[in-house]
Specification:
Distance between the termini: 37 Å
Helix content: 40-55%
Order of helices and strands: HEEHEHEHEHHHH
Strand order of the largest sheet: 3-4-5
Structural class: mainly alpha
Shape: elongated
Radius of gyration: 23 Å
Mean pLDDT: 83
């Protein structure tokens, strides 16, 4: 779900979404015309049962909306005929009660009402967007996990506050500053082991440097700092020694090392704060 009007996600889906992206129904309502230009190239394999849903409650700059006949035509990105296809960022959100936005909001309420995990990227909770906040407050319930990604710590806190009533009893809340941090939590793809190893290596070097700093400055905590430094060096050795041809085994080993690095990073943070 995107509150933005741009078509970056739409374009990515049309390039690499494969059979997971079906623009005819992917926006939460039926679209008859213009779908071919936004459909991914044909590929092998059967059609998927549950294709990706891209809900855009404020409209999209690749829609041409004809309210008279209740029809949306997909047009090239940012085409002049997309004028009138968006809900402006103002206090007045009365347009969302009209078709097709009403269909999108209905789908959003249904999807959010069943969500167990929510990843919120870049949303700053603007004061003019009371309706979107109400949607998140009222329809999200019993989340098991909430991940908030935003470089603005105040915005992260606002999102967590809005979502507080929707968190389950033992829900996990994770706050991240960058998309790179979010990517580090995702499974390693078959073509990504090198970049994942580089990312873990960078994190290990950071932990080692912080452990060295703690060892030199931390008086009675030197013993723990020395232990962390030695564990980090051992993990560096394991990372450098990886020679696993099987992708699944490689992914498993990288996940184990990454989790151990995070544990060391958390220990260092608790020492230095």
């Amino acid at each position: 779900m995107s509150f933005n009007y741009d078509t970056l996600i739409d374009q990515a889906l049309s390039r690499v979404g494969g059979k997971r992206w079906v623009p005819d129904v992917g926006y939460g309502f039926d679209i008859q015309d213009g779908v071919d230009q936004w459909r991914p190239p044909p590929g092998p394999g059967p059609n998927v049962k549950n294709p990706v849903l891209l809900l855009k409650p404020h409209g999209s700059l690749n829609w041409h909306v004809d309210k008279d006949v209740h029809a949306v035509t997909l047009v090239p990105a940012y085409h002049r005929s997309s004028t009138g296809a968006i809900v402006p960022p103002t206090w007045d959100k009365s347009d969302v009660g009209q078709w097709p936005w009403s269909e999108v909001w209905r789908s959003a309420r249904r999807v959010l009402g069943t969500a167990k995990m929510l990843i919120v990227v870049g949303y700053s909770v603007p004061v003019t967007d009371q309706l979107s906040q109400a949607l998140l407050r009222a329809d999200v319930t019993k989340l098991a996990a909430l991940v908030v990604v935003n470089p603005d710590s105040a915005a992260r806190r606002r999102v967590s506050g809005v979502m507080a009533s929707g968190l389950g009893l033992n829900a996990v809340v994770i706050e991240l500053s960058t998309l790179e941090e979010l990517a580090s939590y995702l499974p390693v793809g078959p073509h990504e082991p090198k970049s994942e190893m580089e990312s873990i290596g960078d994190a290990l070097r950071k932990v080692t440097a912080m452990a060295e700093l703690a060892f030199n400055n931390a008086g009675d905590m030197k013993s723990e700092a020395r232990e962390i430094r030695e564990l980090a060096e051992e993990l560096e050795y394991r990372l450098d020694a990886i020679e696993i041809p099987d992708v699944e085994e490689l992914e498993g080993e990288l996940i184990r090392i990454r989790d151990e690095v995070r544990d060391l990073d958390a220990r260092i943070d608790s020492m230095l704060t």
